[in-house]
Amino acid sequence: MNTARLRSWLLWFIVLAATASLLMLMRARLDEAHFALAFLLVVLAGSAAEGRALGVALAGVAFVVFNWFFLRPYNTLIIEDPRDWLVLVAFLVTGIVAAQLLERQRQATESARRRADEIDRLATLGAETLKAPRAAEALDAIAAVIREAMGVERCSIFRWDASAGLRLAGQSPAQSVGDANSALLSYTVENAMPAAERADGTLTILSDALAAERTDSSPSVTLADLSALGIPLAVSGKVVGALRLSAVQPFGVTDDQRRVLGALSYYAALGIERLRLAGAEEEAESLRRADRLKDALLAAVSHDLRTPLTAIKGIANEIWRGGDPSRAQIIEEEADRLNAQVGDLLELSQINAGVLPLTVTTNAVDDVVGAALDRVESVHGAGRIDVRIANDDAILVGDFDFMHTMRALTNLLENALKYSPSELPVQLEVVQLGDRLRFTVEDRGPGIPAGDEQKIFAPFYRGSAVSDGVRGTGLGLSIARQLIEAQRGTLEYAPRTNGGSRFTIDLPAAAQPRA
Question: What is the CATH number of the domain that holds 344?
């Protein structure tokens, strides 16, 4: 008995003594029924406060006090009137039965409270699972709820794959170490049966010892002094993973925790199944994108690549038959155009395959802008681009891939020149906003029709209002956005005030050295 409970018991016996003392002052004016009722109130109050054991103890002591002080002859245990035996025995039986009934009610109330706590945990788990945007985050949330409900230090959820074995899918706390190769989890998954690792290192098979409802034939297994507990996670009878609870100090699982652990484990199994389905959906979406890209690529090859080839063949045949040799320049231009288209297709395939090399270093804005201008002006001529770099006598520098950024900027400038009237300049502005660099390219062309703002970044999409005289494959903006996003940047479109288009590249800035 702990100190607090001992003090409580002592207090109730003092209350019993005080009640007896008060009744002694009125003993001549009261009869046996009054004494019995007064003592019975003390027994009931003690039982309600501290449980059945105290109630029975108070009833026993009150029985002796009642007999000694309030039944004639006084100060003896002898009973003068035989009818007083009925009063005395009735008091003792009533006190004990009342204490028993109060204990049952208290246990029922406590059980209801525990059930309510279990429902709260399940509701919390459901809410945490539903609000998690990604399957992996949902599993972390499930692990956190299970760890708190079981009162252990670590909870790890593993996904089972026949080819790769067990892989960590969720854990709490974050960055904790999960042992996927332990003998405990291996047995758990291979036999679809829970097991426990004792503090002394021995392995105990639990069979149905963790079942919420156990029969009389269920083996009696003490779930105490554990260092780890492994539970198979199954959906529709198929093992999809395993749950591991562990702690540095030995821990146990109470009967209440056994009951709720089954439901919590099933949530974890559903979380793993969601993760599997999400992976299958991503794979299916990747295949759908590849199929759409293939169709678009075939359409582009059949039209955009055939056009320069037709021109090359026609002019070459004309020269062979004695035509103007100076037209060979057109052959060279068309060959260059064909080479650029093939290069775009190759780069797009590398991006989609995830094999595009990326080298992020600290580079000066002036250098990447100068390189992009050299490329653009060699084709479209100089003087059509107004450049403004807002550096306030400092050199703007950023952390980005030089070649990819130059390529993206070149695509934007070429698009702007392609769609702008030749007499109106294209504007390029670079500013630093906090820890970001912003490249803005503005033109005064027709702009982007409403509804096409995001479609223009899709491969091979050229817009619903593009003039037939404007040549292109529809790859420039798609490649530019993916090159920028690979560097933790963004590329966005917005309509320009007074007409035209505004494209904005946002990339990480670096510390500014003074000029």
Answer: 1.10.287.130
